[in-house]
Amino acid sequence: MENIMEITVIIITSLLIITGIVAIDYSIRTWIDKVNGSVVLKRWLIWLRVVIPMVAIVMIDLNYSDATDIWGRLTGYSVEISIACYFIVHVHDKLFVYATDCMALVVMLFNISVYFPAVPNYQDFGRLLLSLFGVLLTIFINHLIYSYDVFKIRSRVRFFVIICLYSMSWWSILSLNQTFSGYDLLAQMVASIVNISIILSLDLVFRKQLESLTHEIDADFLTQIGNRKAFEFAFQQLFNKYEKRQHDWYLVMLDIDDFKQINDQFGHIVGDTALRRLSKEVNLQLYDLQLDASFFRIGGEEFAILLTHIDESHLPQIIEQLKTTVGRIDITTNGEQSVKISISMGVAKYQNHDNSAAVLYERAGSYLYAAKKDGKNSVNYEGNKLIK
């Protein structure tokens, strides 16, 4: 009974720590988003996001290292692993990635110095190889998440596989500790997966709450996609995030051809219907293609799409599918007339010489203008006709 109570206290404490970490991180993230004028203050807040998980992990380690029960010490490790995973996913800072890499290596070296026997047998060498594999796998996953934002993928299976691999990598490192049985390691590997799932689920709950609170402010009143304010914020954030990283990302600007003529000939109700239908269909298409994309109405009949993690060779196919989707839209007027719409698009790829978001925006706008001038219902990509 006493053991059950102790384990219950440990689990509740772990959940409280995890919840507190997520809440603190979201508070800092909110401050970062609100700080526009002071670059120094913003940088300090970003550094704070890097330091907090490191301090939390050290404090948890010191707290649980005194636990007399082995389950308590193992639970401490499990919580630390879940916190490391959470911040690897969200911080996107090289310092934290490298610090976590070093942490994995230090843990392995510490366990070698303490637990590796002077006269090892085959089983000891097996544990050593498993631990080394764990270090390499941890480093690989850290950099994979940092480089490709893999937790934005919509495949739950892949999402869960990465969580399992991350847990397995750390417990492989800890397998050198011969005071842990195989059962202990397996049980805590499962516990780590549960903890990571909990902490990322809490993150999702916090994110959805924030999205619901800001939806009325950031959503376009007619189409319910992002408005101009939301676009400018997301565009600047994306530019800042990838300014010094080698990732392909694109700004796509599009508008409805001859929209004024549609309004004049069929009325503003038909025009509004066209805007709503286009927004809905393009949004669904972006989702179906499982793209890391954000869609905004930035004024009148003009829209913008932010595309990240897209291979340039796949871009023409994506653009063609979006144009085809819009081309299938058929609006019936009160007079039973059928109204078809088409779009022109200007696509700009982020380049190293783009020293500000405004430069990239102006370039995409010039490509849209060129597409319209080229006969409409066309696409201009970096000054060249992509599709007609």
Question: How would you describe what is shown here?
Answer:
- With 388 residues, the protein is of the alpha+beta class.
- It has helices at residues 2-34, 39-65, 70-91, 94-115, 122-148, 156-173, 182-218, 228-242, 259-266, 268-288, 315-327, 357-373; strands spanning 249-256, 292-299, 302-308, 330-332, 338-340, 343-349, 379-381, 384-387.
- The protein contains twelve helices and eight strands.
- The longest helix has 37 residues, at 182-218.
- The chain is elongated.
- The chain starts with a helix and ends with a strand.
- This is GGDEF domain-containing protein.
- The chain crosses the membrane at residues 6-24, 44-64, 70-89, 96-116, 128-145, 157-173, 185-206.
- Pfam families: GGDEF.
Major sheet details? 6 strands, mixed
Query: Can you count the beta strands?
Result: 8
Name the shape in a single word: elongated
Strand order of the largest sheet: 2-3-1-6-7-8
Assign the structural class, choosing from mainly alpha, mainly beta, alpha/beta, alpha+beta, or little secondary structure: alpha+beta
The number of helical segments is 12
Report how far apart the termini are: 75 Å
Mean pLDDT, to the nearest integer, reads 80
* Cα radius of gyration in angstroms: 26 Å
Task: Report the uncertain regions.
Answer: none
Which percent bin holds the helix content?
55-70%
Q: Would you list the SSEs in sequence order as H and E? A: HHHHHHHHEHHEEHEEEHEE
